[in-house]
Amino acid sequence: MTFAPEWLALREIADAEARSTELVDVVRETLVNRNRLTIRDLGCGTGSMGRWLAGRLGGVQHWVLHDRDPRLLELAEAGMSAFENVTVETREGDLTELRAADLAGADLVTCSALLDLLTTNEMNALAVACVEAHVPALFTLSVAGRIEFDPAEPLDAAFSDAFNAHQRRVVDGRRLLGPDAPAAAEEAFVAAGASVRTASSPWRMSADALQREWLKGWVGAAVEQEPALAVEADDYLRRRSEASAVVHHVDLLAIPGAV
């Protein structure tokens, strides 16, 4: 699955405001004695995670940006070039095939808004890879399956349930985790022998451009899952575009016992 650069640019500010800075504080404490950090960013998109995190980590850093879309990798590499003491390389390919040997030498593995696109087996394998490589993982903005509108209305639950079911759909024989990703990630890392901390990272929107664009995709996916909702979709979309909305996410920091 690939994403349009325009969508990634639109959400970058909301992502930056939502991510947990408290978990970053723990990362800095964990890596305090390392004077050159190597960070592997999985599913990097246009590099928004790197732009958000590099300045917060400080010091000399080398980022390895992974994505399957070469167009996004070019944008990500260019977007990271403005940082002093930061070097970048890109890796194109399927990140679900990464194993511990591929993460050798990394000080931190990161991703943003990625885990819902994995399967349970892929999530388990990623957790094992990080723990066996003795590398902490900071995984941000995993969808939690909860949306709050103000004012609320009865149809919210129907559209939310349909969207969540759509996120759990089977794609090319793969059952996606969707909103089950935060719990699956925590379970996988604990089972692999890591300590886990989580923090909420909600988007808070108020009838803005991001909300309007997000709603189109959210309502569209719900209707694709439950076609009976189509008769309500246009009016519902108009009403919800005028409400405020909170889209809940979860950030997770996993630290292997050997770190």
Describe the structure.
With 259 residues, the protein is α/β, with parallel strands linked by helices. It has one domain: Vaccinia Virus protein VP39 (Rossmann fold). The chain is built from nine helices and ten strands. Strands 1, 2, 3, 4, 5, 8, 9 and 10 form an eight-stranded mixed β-sheet that branches. Strands 6-7 form a two-stranded antiparallel sheet. Helix 3 links the parallel strand 1 and strand 2. Helix 6 packs across helix 8 (209-225) and helix 8 (209-225) packs antiparallel against helix 9. The longest helix has 17 residues, at 209-225. The mean pLDDT is 96.
Q: Order of helices and strands, N to C?
A: HHEHEHEEHEHEEHEEHHE
Q: What is the domain tally?
A: 1
Please name the CATH architecture.
Answer: 3-Layer(aba) Sandwich
| Mean pLDDT score | 96
Radius of gyration: 18 Å
According to CATH, the homologous superfamily is Vaccinia Virus protein VP39
Helix run count: 9
CATH class: Alpha Beta
Oligomer, anyone?
Answer: single chain
How would you summarize this macromolecular structure in one to three sentences?
Helix content is 43%, strand content 27%. The chain contains nine helices and ten strands. Helix 5 runs parallel beside helix 7 (181-192), helix 6 packs across helix 8 (209-225) and helix 8 runs antiparallel to helix 9 (230-241).
List the helices and strands and how they pair.
Layout: H1 5-18, H2 21-30, E1 36-42, H3 48-57, E2 60-67, H4 70-79, E3 86-92, E4 108-112, H5 120-132, E5 137-150, H6 155-167, E6 170-171, E7 174-175, H7 181-192, E8 194-200, E9 203-206, H8 209-225, H9 230-241, E10 244-256
Parallel strand pairs: 1-2, 1-4, 2-3, 4-5
Antiparallel strand pairs: 5-10, 6-7, 8-10, 9-10
